[in-house]
Amino acid sequence: MNNSKHEAISSAPAKVxxxxxxxVVYHNPAxxxxxxxxxxxxxxxxxxxxxxxxxxxxxxxxxxASNDNFIQxxxxxxTFLYPIFKCVKHVLSEKEKQTIGINLHINSEIxxxxxxxxxxxxxxxxIAALYSLFxxxxxxxxxxxxxxxxxxxxxxxxxxxxxxxxxxGIVDFEPNKGFSKIETAKKFSxxxxxxxxxxxxxxxVSQVKLFxxxxxxxxxxxxxxxxxxxxxxxxxxxxxxxxxxxxxFTENQKLLSMLGVSHPLIEKLIERCINNGALGAKxxxxxxxxxxxxxxxxxxxxxxxxxxSRESGKWMLVEFDHDGxxxx
Length: 328
Ligand code: MEV
What we know:
This protein has about 325 residues and is an alpha+beta fold. It has helices at about 70, 80-95, 120-135, 140-155, 160-165, 200-215, 215-240, 240-260, 265-275, 300-310, and strands spanning about 5-20, 30-45, 50-55, 60-65, 100-110, 170-175, 180, 190-195, 280-285, 290-295, 315-320, 325. The radius of gyration is 20 Å and the shape is globular. (R)-mevalonate (MEV) binds near residues 17, 21, 24, 160 and 205. (R)-mevalonate (MEV) binds near residues 17, 25, 205 and 286.
């Protein structure tokens, strides 16, 4: 291989949607942040013409040249790995390297299927490692390819997850302006709680599509309220107003409940956060399970996080990531 390496490493961050999930699919604003939980990928060229992927106990080994019909025989345990395989295959075909094999080792700190962007981060990190093998480290190209691959996973993907995982930071998406980074006046403290109920983003997005088709005027009303929340949230972030930001989390959650994407466990975790001193809380990502985020007062964040997590469940006090994808 000319101008290419034998091995490469990369990592990409998970994300939380702070405001605007689901509505963003219909060209409404959203505010999304990368967090300090990552997926790490090690890629190496192998001597066999096959793509082998290992992540914990899960593994997949498919001849590079196989077509989709062959791949259909793989069972559901490969749900997480199959999109990664597609990313590898896509880059090999883009680089006209369909005859070589690749070994991929994945190590993830991101819970899978909990709305924290594990699928986007795995696409971004895999594409970055593969491009790096062929001496391409351009973040815009990584994002563009990851967005196409994410759309294979769920057709109505807005692309916000891939964007924030590639570029990092707190990102504002506005339909007519695209993406821009938000610099906040102070450090905000976000606690993540996971329900343990796995969801398929594609399925929840399809359910919302049906809701929208059946209740178009109600959906438009909810969308315009969600847009207003994003405008107020940008201002609260600029001003470092955590009280306002917290109450906007809770307001956004009410809209998501009306959209039908909440879940009894989400409501339970939110209630626990509020009762223990959180300034506001909401589901994050697709919902119907997955994770919630709570905004904690920064000066008492550890104490409140301890109280909330003492009873049960999986909780993580996270920091925002400002780097995005890292390529070795
Ligand atoms: C999923 O993390 C966020 C959704 O808005 C879908 C998307 O934006 O593609 C539910």
